[in-house]
Amino acid sequence: MEQDVAAARGAIDALERACAAVTGHFRDTVDSRRLRVDIARLREDLTLVVGVPPRPVHDPYRASFEAAAYDDGFDQAMDSPGRRVR
């Protein structure tokens, strides 16, 4: 499978180079921009078909992001009795 994916990525690269050569003869138009977007979409679609690489097992930021998801941003210490603004 890895060889097939590499071949597909190589074909997309070749298509991008060929289209860049053709669009170089024309000014920047909606159609030439659309062609570039279509090539980018091919790359993204291939990545989606193959699958996203798995997340690393050790993610030092994961716990802080999960805690932030349930945090409403209200600091309990702000309304403690006896707290004064200096």
UniProtKB/TrEMBL annotation:
Top-level taxon in the UniProt lineage: Bacteria
Listed name of the protein: Uncharacterized protein
